[in-house]
Amino acid sequence: MRTKIVAGNWKMNTDQTSGLQLVAEIVKGLENIYLLPEIELAFGVPHPYLKSVADAIPDYFKSQLKVAGQNCHLELNGAYTGCVSAAMLKDVGCRSVILGHSERRKYFGETDALLHDKIKTAFSQNLTVIYCCGETLEEREGGLEEKVIAEQISTALFGFSAEQLKNIVIAYEPVWAIGTGKTASPEQAEAVHAFIRKSLENQYDETTADNMTILYGGSVKPANAADIFAKPNVDGGLIGGASLKSADFLAIVAAMVKSPK
């Protein structure tokens, strides 16, 4: 059975007080939700607050509530002012790291080849990687989404063995649906998730593809989460704005718990 994941990406939001309050509200709200063993939650926290958030998660939830870095540097240490390494993320309690987010690609010029090397670095610290891929509106309108995504996953991921791929979660995030209020329809999301899974099967084997957790990200909200999560190839979500409101995040988690799959 594939792991189901609801991960919140806080981006450059919250301060220490509001972040800790958000976690406390979510933990309290989870008392009313039976979190199935196959479901995990993750908080993509701004780097300065990672340790305080990790420490705030009660011991009885630590196996299912995990803290993720939003990025890491290619190197583990060195003269890279302002950067954070995978070793530092591990040291403060991170279990995973988000790599390849469209905002990192757009604003910081990160390429698929660079991301491949970053993934290797994350693996060296036993971090699970949430690898983001997705097309722009122009690419979608040009019918290029499969071509773009195939290149993103082949360059960044196909150099790894099937065994190594067990430590990767893929997040499909159509760039045109991030922070815009637009959302891919459940059918559009399912089509791309199925394409990604088939690409993995063609490169590796059916078992590897079947076991890969693939998340949808792109304006997931309480109102649309259930319909998206019900699709057979969608295994959860990477949540942006809605992850900053405890009630919204909890409603999305509840939709995952109630998913018929």
How would you concisely characterize the structure shown here?
The chain is an alpha/beta fold and about 260 residues long. Helices cover about 40% and strands about 15% of the residues. The chain has a single domain, classed as TIM Barrel (Alpha-Beta Barrel).
Q: What is the top-level CATH class? A: Alpha Beta
Q: What is the average of the pLDDT values?
A: 96
* Annotated CATH homologous superfamily: Aldolase class I
Strand proportion, as a percent range, falls in: 5-15%
User: How are the strands of the largest sheet arranged?
Assistant: 7-6-5-4-3-2-1-8
Order of helices and strands: EHEHEHEHHEHHEHHEHEH
Amino- and carboxy-terminal Cα gap: 10 Å
Helix content range: 40-55%
The overall strand count is 8
Number of domains: 1
Rg over CA atoms, rounded to whole Å, is 17 Å
The CATH architecture comes to Alpha-Beta Barrel
The geometry reads as globular
The CATH topology is TIM Barrel
- Low-confidence segments, given as residue ranges, are none
Largest sheet: 8 strands, parallel
Helix/strand structural class:
alpha/beta
Number of helices: 11
Description:
This protein has an 8-stranded parallel sheet with strand order 7-6-5-4-3-2-1-8. Helix 7 crosses helix 8. The protein contains 11 helices and 8 strands. With 261 residues, the chain is α/β, with parallel strands linked by helices. It starts with a strand and ends with a helix. Strand 3, helix 3 and strand 4 form a beta-alpha-beta unit. The longest helix is centred in the C-terminal third of the chain and has 18 residues. The chain is globular and about 45 Å long. Helix content is 42%, strand content 15%. It has one domain: TIM Barrel.
